[in-house]
Amino acid sequence: MADRTVPARRPAPAPGAPGAPGALAALAARMEAATPAGRDRGVDALRALAVAGVVTGHWLVTAWTPHPGGTVRVSSPLAHMPWLTPASWVLQTLAVFFFVGGYAAARSLRSAAGYRLWVRARMRRLLRPVGLPALVWAGVAAGLAVGGMPIGPIRSLVQPAVGPVWFLAVFAALTAATPLLRAAPLAVAGSAATVVLAADAVRFGLGGPSWPGWVNVVAGWLVPYALGVAWAGGAFTSRRVAAGMLAAGAAGTAALVAWFGYPVSMVGVTGAKVSNLSPPTLAAVCFGIAQVGLALLVRGPLARLMRRPRLWAAVALVNLSAMTVFLWHQTVLTAAALAVLRLGGLPGLVEAPTGPAWLAHRLAWLPVFAALLALVVPAVRAAGRLRGGRPGPG
């Protein structure tokens, strides 16, 4: 993960007034004071927005349809309400996360004492938080199986919760390869995009098997990650270049969708023959390049906004807990679904996502998920401290 600002300890609110405005203002002021003068707040804001996009997107598109016998199947509102597809263009922000991750890793490597110590610390930060959610969901799956639930519905419930681990594995692999990318990151990004193009040509153009596409799981996300490494090395200083990336990426995505049959949605849709994310397609890569261009353009304005202490405090807190939020946000959603499953479903949670009423109900659930996640994050960090040593950042 990227460099992180460590805020001062949260001051205790006045008795009988938890979360009082004065306490929040004091927290913001102390976090502002604890932030180094040279901190790149625009990069932190980009990361926080990327995390928020992924979390919100998952909470909106992950749905379950109840079936007789207390079982469920995964569904997607995009399969029933295609007019929601533009939301996937806003909330699918993984390319920005990889871009900022490449930038932060390359920057931190400059001051590292050596590769071995650097990569060990990075892998500990990335991989250590995985153990607890994996243990929790292994127990949940075993309990559901013992209770008589068939394997299919168990997979439908557990898979969304453990799905973020695939991202973490790819991110860890690219992080470990950062020193190799620094020599020629732009060439690496171009080569990775060519690999994605070749894999898609085999799958879609030549009617070949689907398995070559899984090379894109690494190659597709290597493109924005390598662009981030290039950015850390001094590339993309011109706004004209950033605007060109935005325009070219958007045009390439539109052409692939309009003329070559790529899906319009930038996230997977249940029942669709092709997904732009599983594995990433050339359309997802082009879309990611457009996102990188946009990120470069808004980084400056975001940095200026982050001079407002309360906004900066919110962004710093998200960055501190980014890994925990990423690993546990779907657990919160799935746990809520499990809790109401015995009731036969609740509107917007365990209910077929077939119309605007479902969307209204799901939007009403979002504050509940956010509140649950706000309880889980400090508990997980406390558990990390109890296991000994410093908990991973986030």
From TrEMBL:
Keyword Nucleotide-binding set for record: no
Regions annotated as coiled coil: none
Domain Acyltransferase: 42-376
UniProt-recorded Gene Ontology molecular function terms: acyltransferase activity, transferring groups other than amino-acyl groups
Keywords (A to Z) from UniProt: Membrane, Transmembrane, Transmembrane helix
Keyword Transmembrane helix on entry: yes
Pfam hit, one: Acyl_transf_3
Transmembrane segments: 48-67, 87-106, 126-151, 157-176, 183-202, 214-234, 241-262, 282-299, 311-343, 363-380
Protein name from the UniProt record: Acyltransferase 3 domain-containing protein
Protein species of origin: Streptosporangium sandarakinum
